[in-house]
Amino acid sequence: MTSKNCLRNNLLAMTWDTMKKNLWMTTLSTLAYFFALPVAAAVYVQSSSYIWNDTSSWTLENKIDRVSSFFTTGNTILCVLVIIGAFVASSFAFYYLHKRKPVDFYHSLPLKRDQLFNINYLAGAGAFLLPFTINFFIALIIFAISGASQYIALSQILTGFCLHLLYFMLIYSLLIIPSLLMGNFVLDVLMKLAFLFICTAAYGLYYGIMEVFYTTYMGALSNIEANLAYTSPAIRYAMTGNTLPVTTLDIVLSILGIALLYALGRFFCKKRPSEAAGNCLAFPRLKPVLKYPIMLVVTVGFGLFFYTINDSFGTVNYGDGRGFHLGWLFFGLLIGTFICDRIIEILYELDFRAIGRRWVPMLVFMAVICALAVVPITDATGYDKYRPDAEQVAQINADLGITDYIASNSYSYNRNLTSRENYIENNLSVVVLQEPANINTLLAIIDKSIANAQNRQTEEETVAGEEQYTGYVNLNILYTLKNGKEVGRSYFRVPMNQVVDELAALIDSEEFINSQLLAYKDAAVDNLLLSEINVFEQPQAGFSGIKLKRPLQEAVLEAYKADWLTLDSHTMMTELPVGSLAIYQVQDENGKAVSYTAATIQENGGYSVANNGRLREFQYPIYASFTKTLTALANCGVPQNSWQTDPTTFTSVTEDHYADRYNDYKYDGGESVTVEPEMPVKDEDYYEKYYEKGVQHTEYTDRADITRIINATVADETMNFTRFFTGRNNVSVYAVYDNSYTTGSMNRVYPVPLIDKN
Q1: What is the DSSP annotation of 335-373?
Q2: CA 578 remoteness from chain centre
Q3: How are strands ordered across the β-sheet holding 714-715?
Q4: 3-class state of residue 708 by DSSP
Q5: 432: part of which helix (H) or strand (E)?
Q6: One-character DSSP codes across 195-253
Q7: More confidently predicted of 366 and 280
Q8: For 304-314, what is each residue's pLDDT tens digit?
Q9: DSSP code for 99
Q10: What are the residues whose beta carbons fall under 8 Å from the beta carbon of 284, sequence distance 6 or more?
């Protein structure tokens, strides 16, 4: 018999003894971390040997980062193994609690429950942390003796090591709780999965509900990545060092979380009755606390699943034309409730006969969940109708959908900002309104959008003739209220003709015009690079602006800014651009404009930015009325007559007229002619037969026909730089040109104005 004196106070000795009794856990973790650390390190070093000897393309900082990434939380495989280790360790550290004989034995020892908890808690953690630590530093030694020693940043690596240990203990401490609550090992494993990911699933469902039911919800502002990271320590751990930075707050919260979970575990260990082994739950009063959050997540998941995949029963049509089906939503909620509730009851009682018991709570839950579903269906909270009073608004950042020709290339993502902040900078910083008059004007447009929300049609639901070409304004809005609160909303499909006066007032405002010059914002001309000039009608006249001498570049940039500041709504709404101008702005890692130099722009024959900076591209339209710009470009070699159409350079034109597959019409000389219905979509040869039957293919080589068509069309690239015109959608034009400079071809379109503005 073990004496009381042998077991007294020697916590480390008893922990070590417990680890030896569960040697398989230590052995398993040793093998897993041996291959993940020392073996992987040896392979990694050997495969990267060319990097250590490279003195040209790989800088010292790059090499240090490459070594550090193997040991820090940037090593995703290692993070996954640590998470799995925490899961396995927590599952077996208190495995004895699920068997009655081991429970009787351990609880008969002359140990307090607190001591017993500490021993098993430390033994479970030690079985994985000890092998991890040994293999971690063996891997570090391998790097040190294999030619990469000078690239070892010990502070970064030790920080990574501490983060691995910290998140292991946080996840491990969290997953200990289900072991103490459950009386059955299988149920313990299932509850661990629920503890680890139920908040993640709940947030994902919340995001899905908002996207599906609320037409004004702007998911891009939800910062879903950062929010998901706080729904589970496992996800936060996997994202730390990759998409999310390490912060002091995270470390402090993690330490507090470990302490809280440890204290909670000790409490449950002391209160857990010995006879709970083999039962479902050690604390029956916690049944509803554990049951209903799981049921809520599962039931809502069932409802959304059936709601979005079926196409029967009643439908609700939203602004994007999707039909979602309410009958299947309620079917999913009811069937999800039934399945989940019955399974949980069977597991609670460990008896299949429980499927016929406790029906009343299930029926009550069904009624409650169906009643709650009415809230998003009917927008009972008024979410889609939200619009603050003008007096509450300090600023509005907006994407009006009328000037989205301004683009940013792949270098525009700033890694120092969250996805939400990047979205605002790249999409909602084009129009920034603070003047009360402009805020009131924009709110008037929003009011009309809300009023039209119930009577929307998709652009595909049109009729033959000019009436089908209706222009719409889609608004992405970020309100900044005077109390500091930020609210994002998307308002869709306001007919342009209903808000033409408001749009004109906005466009003609000094605040609007200035905000459009995003490339010039906080940047002088010497921070900008003239990248490219495109001439729509005569592509051969365009050229790369990078090759221009700096004075010529600056002259064009200054001239364009001056012309843009004179642009008015009448020009934008009635004239088509004749070309475009691409401008690069070089920014540092904090998004601040830096001076243009060849070193920061052209590197190894391509475009790149040093020191984690970025290169933003802005594309702007050129109008025929931009005389200063056209003159400056003429000095760069673009003749003034290059901006007009020259039908004589075209040698042939091909027109394809398409029958409308929805309304069964085709164009014949501009007239709408009814044709027979098209082949059914279910026919496997539908598209081939449709092309043969529904398209009129005509090639013109007569000079009069070519001139007529060329004068009536524009280069299709023009449509990318105007939102007040569209191309006729049932005819396409393919034109071939030949002149003394070059030969080529272009696609052209018949332009159609989207608003009545004379």
Answers
A1: HHHHHHHHHHHHHHHT-GGGGGS-HHHHHHHHHHHHHHH
A2: 35
A3: 695-700, 650-658, 731-738, 743-749, 714-715
A4: helix
A5: strand 431-433
A6: HHHHHHHHHHHHHHHHHHH-TT--GGGS-HHHHHHTS-HHHHHHHBTTTB---HHHHHH
A7: 366
A8: 999 887 644 44
A9: S
A10: none
pLDDT at 742 over 80: no
Task: Report the pLDDT averaged over residues 167-177.
Answer: 96
Q: pLDDT for 339-377, tens place per residue?
A: 999 999 998 888 888 888 889 999 999 999 999 999 999
Distance of CA 564 to the CA centre of its chain: 33
Give the C-alpha separation, 291 to 593, whole Å.
Answer: 55
- Phi and psi at 158, nearest 5°, equal -65, -35
Here the tokens at position 738 are: 């030949």
Cα dist from 701 to 95, 669, 736, 744, whole Å: 86, 17, 10, 16
Whether 694 shows a pLDDT value over 80: the answer reads no
What angle is formed at CA 314 by the lines to CA 449 and CA 462, rounded to 5 degrees?
50
Taking the C-alpha atoms of 647, 648, 651 and 654 in order, what is their torsion angle to the nearest 10 degrees?
10
Q: Which pair of structure tokens corresponds to residue 428?
A: 């909602």
Q: Is the separation of the CB atoms in 332 and 306 below 8 Å?
A: yes
Q: For residue 36, what pLDDT is reported? A: 92
- Alpha carbons 318 and 316: distance in angstroms, whole number: 6
Pair 70, 166: CB distance under 8 Å: no
**Claim: this prediction has a pTM higher than 0.90:** no
- Tokens for 268, please give them: 């449950």
Give alpha helix (H) positions in 602-736.
627-634, 686-694, 703-712
Cβ neighbours for 287, distance < 8 A, ≥ 6 positions apart? 281, 348
